[in-house]
Amino acid sequence: EVQKLNQQLEEKNAEIQQMINQPPYEKEREILRLQKTLAEKEKAQATSDVLCRSLTDETHQLQRKLASTAEMCQHLAKCLEEKQRKEKGNSDDQIPTERSNQVFLQLQCLLDNETSLQALICNLQEENRMLKQKVAHV
Predict the structure, then answer these.
(1) Do residues 52 and 113 both lie within one domain?
(2) Residue 77 and residue 65: Cα distance in Å, rounded?
(3) Is 0.70 surpassed by the pTM of this model?
(4) Among 58, 76, 93, where does a domain finish?
């Protein structure tokens, strides 16, 4: 591993020495090329930032929607339980109904979607970090 790193270091040193020995116009051309590459990476970084902000906003919206949906489901479940108690006249019978199961499955689906969005945001943030490292390296 050390030999490999030493070899890479020697290659980079040779590359730097070659650049130093280049005529001024070639150095300028190389500088322009590097500036263009940097500008492209900065543009990609800006795009990535915008996408991350957009996904974050969407995540917050979905979280608010999920919270309100959960509240509504709880309210509906309570109403359903009360209605069933009134209809049967027996408060000891609390067997979950098919409708309660459907509400539960819908809530589970919403939670899964939120988890997927969180994973996507994490992936974009990691990509963002990698791009920043590459720009810093250039």
Answers:
(1) no
(2) 18
(3) no
(4) 93
